[in-house]
Amino acid sequence: MRVDGKAFTTIWADKATASVTVIDQTRLPHHFELISIADVEAAGRAIKTMQVRGAPLIGITAAYGVALAMRADPSDDNLERACGLLKATRPTAVNLQWALDSMRRRLAPMPPPERFDAAFNQAAQMARDDIALCEAIGRHGLGLIKEIAARKPRGASVNILTHCNAGWLATVDWGTATAPIYKAQEAGLEIHVFVDETRPRNQGAALTAWELGQHGVPHTVIVDNAGGHLMQHCEIDLVIVGTDRTTATGDVCNKIGTYLKALAASDNHVPFYVAAPSPSIDFSISDGLAEIPIEIRAQEEVSHILGLGADGDIHKVRLIPQGSGALNPAFDVTPARLVTGLITERGVIAASREALAKAFPERIRA
Ligand code: MRU
């Protein structure tokens, strides 16, 4: 996608110099800065501190992290150590485990001297695949937006609500929830996006608003609690969110607050779609509430807020009284019954075991 008119992806790498570069998402939207990741420890830190975040991008960064580890020491022990270090960074998005499993499957049978080259190529292939998956989601989701546009009076915008950032910043390119939006813009449809600010880390206000702005997509940032009200007043035609882990039965784990949006959408008969690339689907589990580990993050993300000071730097200010406790679950689970459909790279399907098994038969163990 684009930053100040220039083409960018969120991550790129050069095998000859063993360098991996990412956009530092903790500095957006106020500062656009790149960081260089030189070893597996730096890759782990970038994921843990959320300089890179979003389920697909976490997976790709981890894959490059393994490649960097193989450059330093391609032994079996180091392969296991690197996978362990990266796996421990964030627990909820299944893409991390998926990426590490694919790297391990490819590298473990190989003689160690061949591992760096193969690991780098594999990570690069995964990055290219991620772009293709997101673009396919964009094409399938565009159909949904077109259907709604066809029912609206000429010139009226299709109003889409999204939560958190499932945009291109959360993937290598295109995004998942935003891919249909960017495709609709390319197709010349009138669209407008309501962007949930997404407390506590404000990925909507800081990241989704920034990237939509960079692409000239009309959008409005709203507080997290406004979505239900807007749905009651018919201001929202469609909700599209991303997912960190979707079960084999279609339960969807995504950024905290997604469940409340799904409840409001259901009560107001607003279609609620989840953009779900297959690496975000965990076919080994069936019960999202019982089986998905929910990341509990630092209280400070709730008790304090970050903003741009008059000096042009980013500052942290306290919101809650000294002595008050805070709790910070980062994700919640939306039961499949509240999901109108999953927008996958293989088409729009029901959030059900049957539909998922039919769309991805190779992922179902005999
Ligand atoms: O905590 P984050 O910012 O990594 O959470 C991101 C989300 O919840 C996204 O909606 C999800 O990863 C899908 S990204 C295509």
Automatic annotation (TrEMBL):
<dbReference type="InterPro" id="IPR042529">
    <property type="entry name" value="IF_2B-like_C"/>
</dbReference>
<comment type="similarity">
    <text>Belongs to the EIF-2B alpha/beta/delta subunits family. MtnA subfamily.</text>
</comment>
<keyword id="KW-0486">Methionine biosynthesis</keyword>
<keyword id="KW-0028">Amino-acid biosynthesis</keyword>
<dbReference type="InterPro" id="IPR027363">
    <property type="entry name" value="M1Pi_N"/>
</dbReference>
<feature type="binding site">
    <location>
        <begin position="254"/>
        <end position="255"/>
    </location>
    <ligand>
        <name>substrate</name>
    </ligand>
</feature>
<feature type="active site" description="Proton donor">
    <location>
        <position position="244"/>
    </location>
</feature>
<feature type="binding site">
    <location>
        <position position="90"/>
    </location>
    <ligand>
        <name>substrate</name>
    </ligand>
</feature>
<dbReference type="InterPro" id="IPR000649">
    <property type="entry name" value="IF-2B-related"/>
</dbReference>
<dbReference type="InterPro" id="IPR005251">
    <property type="entry name" value="IF-M1Pi"/>
</dbReference>
<feature type="binding site">
    <location>
        <position position="203"/>
    </location>
    <ligand>
        <name>substrate</name>
    </ligand>
</feature>
<comment type="pathway">
    <text>Amino-acid biosynthesis; L-methionine biosynthesis via salvage pathway; L-methionine from S-methyl-5-thio-alpha-D-ribose 1-phosphate: step 1/6.</text>
</comment>
<dbReference type="GO" id="GO:0019509">
    <property type="term" value="P:L-methionine salvage from methylthioadenosine"/>
</dbReference>
<keyword id="KW-0413">Isomerase</keyword>
<dbReference type="InterPro" id="IPR011559">
    <property type="entry name" value="Initiation_fac_2B_a/b/d"/>
</dbReference>
<comment type="function">
    <text>Catalyzes the interconversion of methylthioribose-1-phosphate (MTR-1-P) into methylthioribulose-1-phosphate (MTRu-1-P). Also catalyzes the interconversion of 5-deoxyribose 1-phosphate and 5-deoxyribulose 1-phosphate. Part of a bifunctional DHAP-shunt salvage pathway for SAM by-products.</text>
</comment>
<dbReference type="GO" id="GO:0046523">
    <property type="term" value="F:S-methyl-5-thioribose-1-phosphate isomerase activity"/>
</dbReference>
<dbReference type="InterPro" id="IPR037171">
    <property type="entry name" value="NagB/RpiA_transferase-like"/>
</dbReference>
<protein>
    <recommendedName>
        <fullName>Methylthioribose-1-phosphate isomerase</fullName>
        <ecNumber>5.3.1.23</ecNumber>
    </recommendedName>
</protein>
<feature type="binding site">
    <location>
        <begin position="53"/>
        <end position="55"/>
    </location>
    <ligand>
        <name>substrate</name>
    </ligand>
</feature>
<feature type="site" description="Transition state stabilizer">
    <location>
        <position position="164"/>
    </location>
</feature>
<dbReference type="Pfam" id="PF01008">
    <property type="entry name" value="IF-2B"/>
</dbReference>
